[in-house]
C-alpha cells in the first residue's frame, strides 16, 4: 500500500482528500501538513511514497517545499491547486513535480496521476500538457531570437575565428576599432560568452559558425 502525505493549508481540503483517497485500497494517508515547512519535516520523518502538494501556503510555499524535498528525497510529488497559472505549472514541473492538477479534477484523474507518479512517470491532463508544450515552444523561440546575431556580428565573429585582432578587423571592414569592440560585446551578451574563444566555441555549437566558415 502506498503511503500518502497531504499538504494543504485548508483543513476542509485535507479532510476531503482523505475521504476520497481512503476509497482506494492502494493508498493510505500517513500524514498531513498545513504548510510547506511542516511538509519538508514530515517528508523526512514519515518517508511517504507520494505527496499531494498545494502551492500557496503560509510560512513556506508549495514550490519551495518541493525544491527542498527534492534535494533530499526522490519522492514523487503531485501539485494539487486551485491556481491555473502557467508560471506555477512550469516552475512546479521543472522542480520535479510528477503532475499538476486543479482541485476540481475528477477522482479518476487524480488516481491515474498518482498511479503514474508512483511508477516514475509524469502524467499531465491534455489541456495542461498542451499549454506546457506551447510555453516551452515560445521559450525556445525567444531563446533563439535572443542569440540571433546580426549579419555584421557574424562577420566579426568569423574574423575572430580566423584569429584576427580588433584592429585588423576594423581595417578590413572599414570601421573604427571601437565599433568592432561594440559588436564583440553584443556577441558576448547574446551568446553568454566571456572570451573570444568561448564565443567562437558557442557559435559553432549553435550552428552559427561552421568549420568551413
From TrEMBL:
The UniProt record lists the keyword Transcription: yes
Pfam families in the record: GerE, Response_reg
InterPro entries the UniProt entry points to: CheY-like_superfamily, NreC/VraR/RcsB-like_REC, Sig_transdc_resp-reg_C-effctor, Sig_transdc_resp-reg_receiver, Tscrpt_reg_LuxR_C, WalR-like
Superkingdom as given in the UniProt entry: Bacteria
Main location: cytoplasm
Entry's Gene Ontology cellular component terms: cytoplasm
Record localization: Cytoplasm
Sites of 4-aspartylphosphate modification: 54
Domain Response regulatory: 3-118
Molecular functions (GO terms): DNA binding
Keywords: Cytoplasm, DNA-binding, Phosphoprotein, Transcription, Transcription regulation
GO biological process: phosphorelay signal transduction system; regulation of DNA-templated transcription
Keyword Transcription regulation: yes
SUPFAM superfamilies, per database record: C-terminal effector domain of the bipartite response regulators, CheY-like
Domain HTH luxR-type: 142-207
Protein name, per record: Two-component system response regulator YdfI
Organism: Bacillus subtilis
